[in-house]
Q: What sequence folds into this?
């Protein structure tokens, strides 16, 4: 009996040492790009996000240093159950280390739990809900690119200050819409404005005329669109048809992506104000990256901020792994390393990851150009203002994240 | 109360799309006995053809209304000749599976090349602007959609129910051998009928292009609702599908007003209720 316990202890000790040795040399990484590959968010994330992850791996130069980095991609179809099923399979069967992108807040929050349970790494770029770094924050999660708090405190605040003090919301009826409406309402009321009404519409609605009529009847100065992707483009297009801009009401596209503007066309989209954290035509570095990206995309599309966030996130993750000297296959440990290093890349510039997992970088207020001002097929935005990261994102003092209460 | 009138009118406008699409489905099912699941994809193709005509050929919306249904109709006839005709006499399920497969392929190809967020198509200049009706602002284009669809629906109904050609058609589906004995080319008639149904779908696509985004999945989003319309109206009944199309548009519009969260499901709830009471649909005949 004593002997068997001794051998067991010895065996464990050996196993631990060999695992330590293996970690120092383990230079294999598996990245899972989980996105909406075919639905209403496929153009803003989807195959472009997988491409962005691939480019990040290539640009990291780790391949030449003997690292073996694989990327697989999956389609969550905007359904939390499908998203979590893929995530579980990736961790259990495919031995994935990190999941990136995951647009759709409903899916993103569900996957957040799986990644925490499996101790993987989660760099979310596509989802908007600020809950990912607040009430539902996790030691395994980094939220890149943008969130509903930021959208509310940039676009929302700018519009209230410009005199838009009464609001009516058109809200996508799931986690994202609810979070965006909640965060924007807080900003509107804090700045002396008032929300006079709202309507919740199902995700992926083709016709918004009924909802627009209700918004028109509310007489609110601002119609806030707490939706995204195809829902936003259809709303904007149909609002123009119902003469909403001409009637004195203003549309606030709280979340608008480059591909949405492309889809609506400048003629209808011109003059819209909104916020993004990345635009391809900001400086030489962003232009160089975007040109390379666009050449590899099947339809020649420029990268959206979501795809840019995937690139930047994966680059930073790989830097952290390199600094660790190998892949420990331990999500919490890697994310801690990521948080300890300042972020810097060609697309978002300098920034940091806060203890709650929120990445901080500049946000930019844009206005859509008139057709006469546009010089090319993707020349859409005019820069209106820059909001420094520490003002755009949730201040740590306000964060409800449990990780901060140590 | 004013808002309610406005919702009724908006419902009628959406109903005209349902009516046009379900009419095409009813024609195809009535004459060919095929449950055409590719209908949504063909509707989408109609919108895309209009987009190409405008942006590549510089051909206006008005010509697209004529040309797109013809072009997509010809595509439909090729489908019928090369694939669907082999299913004559087989169970409905085969037609459903084949057309569903065709829909997936067509949508996949478009999505691969044009992405998912779609392409812009403007309202033609002559139909821009709107009228103040007192209780709502009615975009002229939407009014045009309702009137145009009503005319097309009535014309199709008239063609099938009241003309000699329609009589041949109905006879050919009842007893093809007998009709052939009169020297009428039944297979060609079937092909033309499929082309007509497909053309109706494409026409709805052109009508919808200026209102909705021209997107590869625009048909996939709509087709399930349209099938519910056809089932409620009674499979294969021409008038049933027209009336149900408009009526369901209105009911959906009212739901968007009173309880918007349920607007995507109300049609299916109705379908369940109707089928519980009358399994053949509202105007369908027992098989």
A:
């Amino acid at each position: 009996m004593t002997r068997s316990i001794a051998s067991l202890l010895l065996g464990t000790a050996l196993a631990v040492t060999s695992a330590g040795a293996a970690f120092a040399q383990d230079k294999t990484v598996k990245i899972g790009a989980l996105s909406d590959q075919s639905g209403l968010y496929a153009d803003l994330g989807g195959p472009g996000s997988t491409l962005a992850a691939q480019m990040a791996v290539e640009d990291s130069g780790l391949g030449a240093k003997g690292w073996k980095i694989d990327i697989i991609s999956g389609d969550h179809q905007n359904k939390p159950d499908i998203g979590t099923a893929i995530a579980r399979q990736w961790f259990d069967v495919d031995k994935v280390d990190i999941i990136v992108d995951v647009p759709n807040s409903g899916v993103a929050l569900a996957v957040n739990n799986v990644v925490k349970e499996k101790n993987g790494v989660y760099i979310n770029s596509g989802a908007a809900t600020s809950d990912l770094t607040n009430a539902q924050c996790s030691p395994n999660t980094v939220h890149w690119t943008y969130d509903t708090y930021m959208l509310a405190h940039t676009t929302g605040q700018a519009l209230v200050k410009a005199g838009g003090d009464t609001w009516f919301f058109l809200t996508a009826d799931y986690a994202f819409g609810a979070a965006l409406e909640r965060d924007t309402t807080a900003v509107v009321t804090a700045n002396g404005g008032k929300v006079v009404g709202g309507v919740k519409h199902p995700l992926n609605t083709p016709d918004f005329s009924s909802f627009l009529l209700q918004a028109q009847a509310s007489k609110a100065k601002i119609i806030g669109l707490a939706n995204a992707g195809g829902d936003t483009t259809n709303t904007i297009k149909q609002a123009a048809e119902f003469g909403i801009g001409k009637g004195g009401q203003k549309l606030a596209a709280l979340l608008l992506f480059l591909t949405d503007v492309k889809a609506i066309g400048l003629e209808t989209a011109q003059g819209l104000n909104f916020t993004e954290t990345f635009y391809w035509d900001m400086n030489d570095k962003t232009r160089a990256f975007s040109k390379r990206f666009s050449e590899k995309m099947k339809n020649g599309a420029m990268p959206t901020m979501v795809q840019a966030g995937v690139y930047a996130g994966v680059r930073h993750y790989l830097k952290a792994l390199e600094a660790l000297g190998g892949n420990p296959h331990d999500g919490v440990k890697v994310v801690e390393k990521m948080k300890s290093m300042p972020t810097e890349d060609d697309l978002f510039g300098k920034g940091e990851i806060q203890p709650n997992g929120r990445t901080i970088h500049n946000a930019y207020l844009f206005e859509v150009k008139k057709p006469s001002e546009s010089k090319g097929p993707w020349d859409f935005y005019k820069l209106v203002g820059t909001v420094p990261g520490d003002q755009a994102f949730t201040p740590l003092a306000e964060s409800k994240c449990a990780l901060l209460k140590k | 109360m004013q808002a309610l009138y406005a919702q009724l009118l908006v419902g009628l406008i959406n109903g005209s799309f349902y009516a046009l699409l379900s009419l095409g489905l009813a024609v195809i099912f009535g004459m060919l006995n095929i449950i055409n699941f590719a209908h949504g994809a063909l509707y989408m193709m109609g919108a895309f053809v209009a987009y190409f005509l405008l942006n590549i050929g510089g051909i206006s919306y008005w010509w697209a209304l004529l040309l797109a249904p013809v072009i997509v109709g010809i595509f439909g006839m090729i489908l019928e000749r090369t694939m669907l005709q082999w299913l004559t006499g087989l169970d409905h399920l085969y037609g459903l599976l084949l057309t569903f497969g065709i829909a997936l392929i067509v949508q996949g190809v478009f999505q691969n090349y044009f992405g998912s967020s779609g392409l812009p198509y403007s309202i033609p200049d002559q139909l821009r602007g709107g009228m103040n009706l007192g209780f709502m602002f009615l975009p002229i284009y939407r009014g045009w959609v309702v009137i145009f669809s009503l005319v097309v629906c009535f014309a199709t109904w008239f063609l099938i129910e009241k003309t000699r050609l329609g009589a041949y058609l109905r006879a050919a589906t009842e007893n093809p051998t007998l009709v052939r004995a009169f020297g009428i080319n039944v297979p060609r008639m079937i092909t033309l009928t499929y082309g007509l149904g497909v053309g109706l779908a494409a026409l709805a696509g052109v009508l919808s292009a200026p209102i909705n985004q021209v997107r590869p999945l625009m048909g996939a989003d709509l087709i399930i609702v349209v099938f519910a319309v056809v089932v409620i109206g009674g499979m294969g009944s021409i008038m049933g599908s027209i009336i149900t199309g408009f009526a369901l548009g209105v009911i959906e519009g009212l739901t968007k007003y009173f309880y918007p969260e349920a607007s995507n499901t109300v049609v299916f709830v109705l379908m369940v209720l109707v089928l519980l009471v009358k399994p053949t649909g509202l105007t369908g005949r027992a098989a």
User: Anything to note?
Assistant: The interface with chain B takes residues 38-44, 46, 173, 199-202, 204-207, 209-211, 213-214, 216-217, 229-230, 233-234, 237-238, 241-243, 247, 259-260, 262-265, 267-268, 298-299, 301 of chain A (CB under 8 Å). The mean pLDDT of chain A is 92. Chain A is about 45% helix and 20% strand.
